[in-house]
Each structure stands twice: as C-alpha cells, then as structure tokens.
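Structure in, sequence out. Go:
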C-alpha cells in the first residue's frame, strides 16, 4: 500500500475517490480528497480481514459553508459500499493536518477550524503565516560572528561561527591554539 504506483493503491484510491464523490455529490464547493497516509491496522485480527487505515484530507472551496460536524455527518450517513466503512470515520484535529512545527511552536485551534502556530517562549516568526518559529533574530549575522544552527533536538538556535566562542553574549575569536565550534579543537 505504500507504493502509490501499485495496483492495490490505485484500487484503494479509486474506491476513496468514488466514495467521496458520492458523499459530496450535492456540495458544489467540494474540490478533491487527498490521501495523506495509508497503513494496515495494528491488530492481527484486523489485518487478517484486510482492513486499511487511511488518513485523508477533503478540500473545499474557500467560501464553503460546511462545518466539520456537517462533513462528518455527511460521511457517516452514506451507505457503505463494502469497500469503505463510513462508520469508522474519525475526524482529525485541525492541528494534525495543518502541520505546525512541533519543536518550535504550539498549535492552537481557533474557531471555524482556523489554526495558529504559536511560538514557544523566546522564539519568533519572521512572517505571520509561518508554521515554524526561530530563535535566530536579526542580530544572528556573520557581521556579529553568529549564524543560525540547530541543536540536537532540531531546535533552531543562534550560535557563534566556527573559530569563535560565546563570552558575555558576544562571539569572540578562539584563543591561540584553539579552533572549531566553540573553540573545542586544540591545535
């Protein structure tokens, strides 16, 4: 199922496409359904029945009047066709779909499915719509012997350039005989 060119995946995609065409046949602002992930269900009993778990995203026009609840109701009220069990539909939270960076932001769900990626303490956005924040401000420049790097957890931080080390919030050249990141290499 992970191979999008396989016959199994194409059959699954066609079944999902047909299902949602049926579900939203009276909705003029329905655009398409995009498959996000496909996986087998975890229990051995379910695997033996050939069930598959599919995460997808339905896309509607910008001015749609459909709420998440209405979409869920439309899906659950469609008669199953043997391939898709509409009763097993579980909506994802908007944050799961929107994709805020979990390292630098906290996802906040606002009214009407609107999502905001709020920066964690000390971080900021370069643009209001960004889904990732930075700890590298305008002072993090080569003129100040600094650059933006990532720590071990993938967190963006401002650090000194190689051959410089931090002293009193400034990057100063390594002492004679030392070099590298934070002057840790002895020559």
């Amino acid at each position: 199922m992970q191979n999008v060119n396989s016959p199994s995946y194409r059959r699954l995609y066609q079944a999902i496409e047909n299902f949602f065409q049926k579900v939203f046949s009276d909705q003029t602002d329905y655009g398409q359904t995009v498959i996000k992930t496909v996986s087998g269900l975890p229990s051995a009993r379910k695997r033996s029945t050939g069930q598959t778990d599919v995460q997808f995203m339905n896309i509607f026009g910008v001015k749609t009047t459909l709420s998440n609840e209405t979409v869920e109701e439309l899906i659950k009220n469609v008669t199953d066709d043997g391939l898709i069990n509409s009763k097993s539909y579980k909506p994802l939270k908007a944050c799961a779909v929107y994709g805020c960076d979990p390292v630098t932001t906290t996802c906040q769900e606002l009214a009407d499915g609107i999502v905001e990626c709020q920066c964690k303490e000390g971080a900021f956005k370069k643009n209001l719509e960004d889904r990732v924040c930075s700890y590298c401000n305008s002072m993090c420049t080569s003129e100040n012997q600094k650059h933006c790097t990532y720590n071990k957890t993938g967190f963006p931080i401002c650090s000194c350039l190689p051959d410089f080390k931090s002293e009193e919030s400034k990057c100063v050249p390594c002492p004679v005989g030392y070099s590298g990141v934070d002057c840790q290499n002895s020559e």
